[in-house]
Design goal:
Layout: E1 2-7, H1 18-27, E2 30-35, H2 43-51, E3 56-60, H3 75-81, E4 87-96, H4 104-121, E5 125-130, H5 133-144, E6 151-153, H6 160-168, E7 172-175, H7 185-193, E8 199-201, H8 223-234, H9 238-252
Parallel strand pairs: 1-2, 2-3, 3-4, 4-5, 5-6, 6-7, 7-8
Helix pairs in contact: 3-4, 4-5, 8-9
Length: about 260
């Protein structure tokens, strides 16, 4: 059974047929899904979706694109909302210098507030980074020096060097359908060498549908296609990869079994 460690079940493209989306995921062998929030206005709906199913979970966070619009979302607010029994992660948070939809200083401040919430709650941090490797690595390391926390670099597309920095900090790496793209040669090389014990898979649905679904709305069922590609890439069976990544998910997101 597969685990989709990062999807957006309440986003346009999936929310209109959420029950069907979940049913198709289950038919494809996807047992568990982590439903991710990116802005405060989504929090209640995302937690509400998780409450409808024992194997759907929720995160609480503010995406870096939304940092400017949420100056009042501080560590205390994140910690309070994360007390819900279905909330198993803080994020997604991080830095996005590709689009720069929010001021970079504001992104960095929000990122640090989320890390503090992860440290305080003991919940893993879900990190988004795009065109911001240096600052992301610096903040992660600096904050780790203030006290330990766990987390994952989601939808990993960064360099091999950044992967090594994240791994050295004890973080996990999650691969999306991007790893199946023909032009993702560097990412595929990194994907081959991620330690088995630190590997997760995800869809980031409704975005980034893997081959052979490119151009379609992505959904959690497609994590099985990414898993099949990744298993071949790493020279293992899809059954073994499914078992490993599901076990890693439960290790990292330990509140699932609490």
């Amino acid at each position: 059974m597969f685990t989709d460690s990062h999807c957006h079940l309440n986003y346009k493209g999936l929310v209109e047929d959420q029950a069907g989306t979940i049913a198709r995921a289950r038919a494809a062998g996807v047992a568990t899904m982590l439903n991710i929030s990116t802005r405060e206005s989504e929090w209640d709906a995302i937690v509400g979706t998780a409450e409808t199913d024992p194997d759907i979970w929720a995160s609480i966070g503010i995406h870096p694109h939304e940092a400017d619009a949420h100056p009042d979302v501080d560590t205390a607010k994140l910690v309070a909302k994360a007390a819900h029994p279905k909330v198993i992660a803080i994020g997604e948070t991080g830095l996005d210098y590709y689009y720069d939809h929010s001021d970079r200083d504001r992104q960095r401040a929000s990122f640090r507030a989320h890390i503090a919430a992860a440290r305080e709650t003991g919940l893993p941090l879900i990190v988004h980074t795009r065109d911001a490797e240096e600052d992301t690595a610096e903040i992660l390391a600096d904050e780790m020096g203030k006290g330990g926390y766990t987390g994952v670099i989601h939808c990993f597309t960064a360099s091999g060097a950044f992967a090594d920095k994240a791994l050295n900090l004890g973080l996990y790496i999650s691969l999306s359908g991007i790893v199946t793209f023909k032009n993702a040669k560097d990412l595929q090389e990194t994907a081959r060498r991620i330690p088995e014990s630190r590997l997760l898979i995800e869809t980031d649905a409704p975005f980034l549908a893997p081959v052979p679904h490119r151009g379609k709305t992505c959904e959690p069922a497609f994590v099985a296609d990414t898993a099949r590609y990744l298993a071949e890439l790493r020279g293992t069976s899809v059954e073994a990869l499914a078992e490993t990544t599901t076990a890693n998910f439960r290790t990292l997101f330990s509140k699932v079994g609490a």
